[in-house]
Amino acid sequence: MKNNKRVFFLVPYLLWIVLFVILPLLLIGWYSITDTNGHFTLENYQRFFGSGTFLRMSLNSLWYAFLITLFTLVISYPAAYLLTKMKHQQFWLLLIILPTWINLLLKAYAFIGILGTHGMVNQFLQLFGLGPVNMLFTNFAFILVAVYIEIPFMILPIYNAIADINPAVIQASEDLGASKWQTFRYVLWPLSWPGVESGIQAIFIPSLSLFMLTRLIGGNRVITLGTAIEEYFMTTMNWNMGATIGVILIVMMIVVMLITGQRKKGRTRK
Amino acid sequence: MKKLLWGISAILLVCLGLWGLSNKLLQSSAASGNHKLIIYNWGDYIDPDLISKFEKQTGYRVTYQTFDSNEAMYTKIKQGGTAYDLAVPSEYMVTKLRKAGLLEKLDLSKIPNRKYLGKNFIHQSFDPQNEYSLPYFWGTLGIIYNDKFVKAGSITSWNDLWNKKYRHNILLVDSARDIMGLSLASLGYSMNTTNTIELHLAKTKLDNLGSNVKAIIADELKMYMIQNEAAIGVTWSGEASEMLAANKHLHYVVPKPYSNLWFDNFVVPKTAKNPQAAYAFINFMLDPKNAAQNAEYVGYATPVEAALKYLPKSVRDDKQFYPDRKLVKRLEVFKDLSKSKVQEYNDLFLEFKMYVH
Predict the structure, then answer these.
(1) What integer pLDDT is reported at residue B271 of this predicted model?
(2) What b-and-e string marks burial along A214-223, b requiring 16 or more CB atoms within 10 Å of the CB?
(3) Which PANTHER family does this entry report, sorted A to Z (chain B) (predicted)?
(4) Percent of chain B with pLDDT over 90
């Protein structure tokens, strides 16, 4: 009886997993190895790897995702560290989380207003006699907005990881004569790595397939795999090719997970 | 395990019950449906006063539903959930709907007012005998420019877009057929070409436009042009008329040598429960006075030639939206191409977007 109850509680979760995770994945896989008439073919993959356009697009996606993650990390790590040293930490955390309550689309539109030719930034520059700078629809604007949106998702896990570190460990390191850099390199960084890792995964993976920002802020001058998927599904309705790109994106994500996960394993073995 | 089975059967039972209920509801609405007309049209694409006038004249009760893309409309009609009596797709979608067997043949004898339609706007390639569709509004693809940045009258042809002066200053609408089409037209090729070499030449020419392109976007284009963000935009005349109304510095041209002519059309889907009402409505909307009133409200160009005399002179003589007949004759209507050709257009366009720098 007791066992039966447990199974019963599992049902909603299992249904969810099967309907919304496993089934769609199988469907994507199936679509990617068939043609528009439903016959088996590997042509889609052949097309992907045989075309410079798609390979360049993949490199583009990886490169932008890497830059976005890097900048977010560089900004978030010191911020998270300082946060653990502050009074009223809950208040500051709240301020960092606050922007995530606002709809993404709304934030993107706000940036359009800020970065535009007659936007706030250019009005400010004009006070110093600097002419209007073209900022909207540039790579710079795209990365800036993406980093802005992702920062809370990096700060939170790192903050949690650092807050969990016993301060005595840091003090011990200092007492034993380690320089500030050594303390950071050999004590703080490895101990906070789990937070950094989940931050990287939470940002790198979605950044691979950003497509709304590439259009609204990048003006379709930044093309990622996400743009291609949207086009194949919505415009040309070639779901098979779209699914193929989806499979490749999934593989890329798994590789990223493996790379970031590896370090942790290696360390625990030591 | 037993409970699991119970749970599943309970869910199934509820589904069954709901299905039965919805069926019953549909039936009852069909029974009272003889006085009901369900119209499926683009958002903000009709003068609401005309609907109430139609209801008063004929006693039909109109339900007006809207869509925002041809594809969305196609899916809804195909699903058949709502019994739309009248829809307004663009020309290539008329072909697609017809090929999918989703359209009812029009009983033209019920629509005598079709005689008011201009000759240039009927018997088009997508429906040569107007068996399935009659035009509602028409328009062109063209260039909108801001005379703050571009000398008025200096843009007359597609090739002017390639001028080095406009570096980083052109907004394009994100549509493969239209942008590939403008490049094809600038080379003198048909905008419906299926010739792979011509398509590649057009794409190579587009690549050279890359440095002039500021962005390739959709609806936002309207906002940017109104806010003087860019000097030049490539868009459709209907969108342009809204922009012109909001910013006096904007001008619209139909570029040389030729451009695209598009139509939105009345059709009666197979789902229709009340085609008589649909005919009455089409006939009502083609009445010259009503057509004029609608055209003035919506701002698009009406194909009802007899309606022109009821329009204010400033509208009627506006060459931007009512180009002279000679030009209209040269405009090309998009044909519904095969799936693989549409893919080719889109792939080349995607490649162009990759290398815009």
Answers:
(1) 87
(2) bbbbbbbbbb
(3) SPERMIDINE/PUTRESCINE-BINDING PERIPLASMIC PROTEIN, SPERMIDINE_PUTRESCINE-BINDING PERIPLASMIC PROTEIN
(4) 58
CATH number for the domain whose boundaries are B19-138+263-322: 3.40.190.10
Inter-chain contact A11–B214, Cβ cutoff 8 Å? no
How far apart are the CA of A82 and the nearest CA of chain B, in angstroms?
40
For residues B305-330, average pLDDT: 87
Write the pLDDT tens digit of every residue in A20-48. Answer: 999 999 999 999 999 878 888 888 999 89
The answer on pLDDT for B118 being more than 50 is yes
A219 touches chain B (CB under 8 A): yes
Token pair of A92 as six digits: 């500051």
Å between A137 CA and nearest CA of chain B: 6
Q: Is B224 annotated as a binding residue?
A: no
What average pLDDT does the structure give for chain A?
88
Q: Name which of B1, B7, B217 is nearest A220 (Cβ-Cβ).
A: B217
Backbone angles phi, psi at B313, to 5 degrees: -55, -35
Q: What domains sit in chain A, N to C, each tagged with a CATH number?
A: 51-269 (1.10.3720.10)
- Give the mean model confidence (pLDDT) for residues B137-149: 94
CA atoms within 13 A on the CB side of B136: 23
What's the confidence (pLDDT) of residue A270?
39
Yes or no, beta carbons of B4 and A116 under 8 Å apart: no
Q: Report d(CA B59, CA B276) in Å as an integer.
A: 13
Q: How far is CA B298 from CA B50, B53, B136, B220, in A?
A: 12, 17, 11, 19
The residue assigned the tokens 């057009």 is: B202
Q: How far apart are CA B318 and CA B304, in angstroms?
A: 16
Phi–psi pair at B192, nearest 5 degrees: -110, 20
Check: CB of residue B134 under 8 Å from CB of residue B279. Answer: no
Tell me: the pLDDT tens digits for B338-347? 888 988 999 9
Q: How far apart are the first and last CA of chain A?
A: 45
For residue B1, the chain A residue with the least C-alpha distance is A4
Backbone φ, ψ for residue B38 (5° rounding): -105, 115
| Residue A167 and residue A175 in contact, taking contact as beta carbons nearer than 8 Å | no
Q: Which of B70, B210, B238, B185 is nearest to A220 (CA)?
A: B210
Torsions phi, psi of B288, nearest 5?
-50, -45
- Which option is the CATH number for B139-261+332-354: 2.60.34.10, 3.20.110.10, 1.25.40.10, 3.40.190.10? 3.40.190.10
Per residue in A203-235, pLDDT tens?
998 898 888 888 889 888 888 898 888 888 877
Q: Do residues A146 and A212 lie in contact, with contact meaning Cβ atoms separated by under 8 Å?
A: no
**pLDDT (tens digit, 9 = 90+) per residue, B131-141?**
999 999 999 99
